[in-house]
Write a structure and sequence with these properties.
Layout: H1 4-15, E1 20-24, H2 29-45, H3 52-78, H4 86-102, H5 104-113, E2 118-124, E3 128-135, H6 141-154, H7 160-166, H8 175-187, E4 195-199, E5 207-214, H9 215-223
Antiparallel strand pairs: 1-2, 2-3, 3-5, 4-5
């Protein structure tokens, strides 16, 4: 729950069109609830609260993928695998999901002790609202290739049934998730290009997933 001081700080930043940045070391359920409340306030102040349920799903799905990317790096280091080596990457990914799910709390504690983190950035202008979910490690070439492939495929899906029928590779743990985000954005009248995932392009070495919301488009949907 947002405290009174947090509420006023967030609201003041929104009204001043100042970016809001929030960090989470391990993205636990408590962190998720806090982010959800900030998102709700953010959308309310922008007159976009009708988007909350679908956007909350998208934000949390992308945050979960971001956390998995960080857990992957911890897992590979723990098992003495070179994550940048394609053969070792494929080897590690065969057991990554099952092992980290089976020992979820231990890996979350390891993530909290690490220097890795997830950052949520909310910003807006009169024309556009942007929600970015970042983690402080860059995409590997193989990760970038697979995300591009998944985004390309997801753009063809009109419904979740399409996604379920087409997806077979869940080794990255993000294929269906990305498809679901794209479909959710479609239901809001936003194009698949509203979701951008890649390296930040800055010197900070971040991976960034950004949802771009054209305020006039979703505003027309609200009043139609």
């Amino acid at each position: 729950m947002l405290s009174t001081s947090d509420y006023e700080r967030v609201r003041t930043a929104i009204l001043a069109a100042t970016p809001i940045a929030l960090k989470s070391s391990s993205y636990t359920s408590a962190h998720r609830d806090y982010i959800d409340r900030v998102l709700s306030l953010y959308l309310y102040e922008l007159g976009l609260v009708h988007l909350h349920n679908n956007l909350a799903y998208c934000v949390h799905e992308l945050a979960g993928n971001s956390r998995n990317a960080l857990l992957k790096r911890i897992y590979f280091a723990e098992h003495g695998l070179d994550i940048a080596d394609r053969d070792q990457y494929e080897q590690g990914m065969r057991s990554f999901r099952q092992d980290t799910i089976g020992e979820k709390q231990r890996y979350l504690r390891a993530l909290e002790r690490s220097t890795y983190y997830i950052r949520f950035v909310f910003r807006h202008s009169e024309e556009e609202a942007r929600i970015a979910i970042e983690n402080n490690t860059p995409l590997l070439p193989i990760e970038r290739e697979r995300i591009v492939e998944k985004l390309t495929n997801a753009k063809r899906y009109k419904t979740m049934a399409d996604a379920y029928a087409s997806l077979a590779d869940f080794s990255e743990g993000a294929g269906l998730g990305i498809a679901m985000v794209v479909v959710m954005l479609r239901t809001l009248g936003l194009s698949p290009e509203s979701l951008v995932i890649g390296n930040s392009g800055d010197e900070d070495g971040f991976t960034r997933a950004t949802i771009k919301i054209n305020r006039s488009t979703v505003g027309r949907l609200q009043t139609a």
